[in-house]
Amino acid sequence: MRRLLPALVLVLTLGGCGWVGRADETSKPDGFQLHGYVSVAGAATGVPGTPCLAPVPDIASGATVKVADQDGKVVAVTTLAAGVLAATGGTYHCNFSFELLNLSGSRPTYQILVGDRPPVAFETRALREGRLAVVDVAVTASPSPS
């Protein structure tokens, strides 16, 4: 019986860890993890899965990723990971992943802002269900000097 008592105390103590300080709440916290990546078209050819650099200056490892609510108020910030080359249908992309923890599931949408790019909106429900937030960046050719 003496051996069982410490094990029982441990189970009861750890069992309530997620609810410590939440005695007045009637539902679980609604936080979720948002996973996504920025995919920049026009990357140099190479072996998929190897490091790459995007052909645009504002998308690079360490660049800021902001997450805003539907009104544009920034609610979280993270950075891009290193670029990884991907090939799809004969075209090459440089993909930069990002992750944000503990976003509220109560908002209907989130906007992702990367570099100097316009925001891209995503439905919260899909993100909570594990859908990746993929921000596609097309590279436009600069006009040639005349």
How would you describe the overall organization of this protein?
With 146 residues, the chain is mostly beta strands. The protein is 12% helix and 39% strand. The strands form 2 sheets. A 4-stranded mixed sheet has the order 4-5-1-8, with no helix packed on it. The protein has a 4-stranded antiparallel sheet with strand order 3-2-6-7. The longest helix is centred in the N-terminal third of the chain and has 12 residues, at 4-15. 21% of the residues are buried. Mean pLDDT is 82; it is low at 7-25.
N- to C-terminal distance: 90 Å
The amount of beta strand, in percent, is 35-45%
Number of helical regions: 2
pLDDT averaged over residues: 82
Class inferred from helices and paired strands: mainly beta
- Count the E strands: 8
In spatial order, strands of the major sheet run: 4-5-1-8
Shape summary: elongated
Indicate the low-confidence ranges by residue numbers: 7-25
Gyration radius, rounded: 21 Å
Could you give a short account of the major beta sheet? 4 strands, mixed
The helix-strand sequence is HEEEEEEEHE
Helix content: 10-25%
